Amino acid sequence: MQRHASWGSFFNINSREPKPSLQDTKEARTKGTQKETIRITGSMENGAVNGYEMETPKNITIKGILSLLMESIDDDKNHSRSVISLGMGDPTAHSCFHTTHVAQEAVVDALQSDKFNGYAPTVGLPQTRRAIAEYLSCDLPYKLSSDDVFITSGCTQAIDVALTMLARPGANILLPRPGFPIYELCAAFRGLEVRHFDLLPEKGFEADPDAIAALADQNTVALVIINPGNPCGNVYSYQHLKKIAETAEKLKILVIADEVYGHLAFGHNPFVPMGSFGSIVPVLTLGSLSKRWMVPGWRLGWFVTSDPSGMFRNPKVVERIKKYFDILGGPATFIQAAVPRILEQTDEVFFKRTINILKQTSDICCDRIKEIPCISCPHKPEGSMAVMMKLNLLLLEDISDDIDFCFKMAREESVIILPGTAVGLKNWLRITFAADPASLEEALRRVKSFCQRHSKQRERC
Ligand SMILES: Cc1ncc(COP(=O)(O)O)c(C=O)c1O
Fold this sequence. Notes:
By secondary structure, the chain is of the alpha/beta class. The protein folds into two domains: about 60-100 and about 350-455, Aspartate Aminotransferase, domain 1; about 100-345, Aspartate Aminotransferase, domain 2, CATH 3.40.640. Helices cover about 35% and strands about 15% of the residues. An eight-stranded mixed β-sheet has the order 4-11-10-9-8-5-6-7, with helices on both faces. A hairpin with a 5-residue loop joins strand 6 (about 195-200) and strand 7. Helix 11 (about 350-370) runs parallel beside helix 13 (about 435-455). The chain is globular and about 65 Å long.
């Protein structure tokens, strides 16, 4: 393995680093494991499009599939039944999940102060950056500074920043499968080739470091770890995360740690931030208030360089990141201004209550699924808000695959479930358990009766 000249080269600032030609890019593309879904549409340099296929990437998105499923519900036929969605990871759709008064008051006060109606600095308000640095440092063996923190519009924009900073012709990125499809979509827009490493259900959806190493080459820029995991509900142990960090270090690639579900862990393993291993390998930590504080609509996220050895403090890297932020609109200034109070004053009781409900609803989900022979749960979720369930199509008649299953389920039972294909696993299902216990029970009752109706051996279900 040829080693990279410097970590700075990842951020496209090393002018001596030879850039692969367009031909190299094409070859890299044809070697890609996902070339049929990850359409690279040409690279953009110096603001000019030199692409040759100006197409919108054809990637599946969760939102796209969920809206098709919603559209497929026949309102006339199902007028007496409410639609229950176990598809979207938005807990606020269910009344048992709502944010704290502290957060609401902090926003109201910031708004009414009349001090935060103007533009914030493009990288975020200084007090917001400082508060997030302090919040994240509580779980790290070193201290982050405000300069390490950049405020984004939700974790989604942090993903875009990370991939945009790393994209260059011929580069590739290693993504988990199943995963969160925004990464594939973003990579397609940015001309980054995607290579997938499988998460192993029989090993708690851990990644295999050898498989990661086998995928990487001198054009690999980073690997992505989502922990706690969406869609698998995994929470990785300290040891597993360390192994991943050591693998990345050996390969000389960065780790992008998506911790949007940070602290939402209710199983055996506590949540360990990947930044804990920042002295082994530079880590880009992505997160937001969306899930832990139940405010995905506030669009408050962060892109953080968790790197005590200071590789990201190279002035050219910092300048490049800052320039990119100049073209992004971050979250509203008054939301940013509320962050220090939200982070400092949220009561532990609020967090514990959330964890208790998620544990209860994930238990309901797994217990009810045990009563349905054609669906199994190879790994009980230990965190986040979603679980992957495996479909056994051999036990069903007239269901061709997971997509067919989910569309028929929507039409016949008004229950929305995401087909596994949307997150990279055909003939699996992703169920979001961030739902009111009563709605979840009702939805799973309907799933059971659907499966009984479509079972090959009805009497056994
Ligand atoms: C793994 C993962 N990353 C990022 C996001 C986006 O987070 P946000 O809503 O803060 O933009 C989500 C949202 O569900 C997610 O599941």
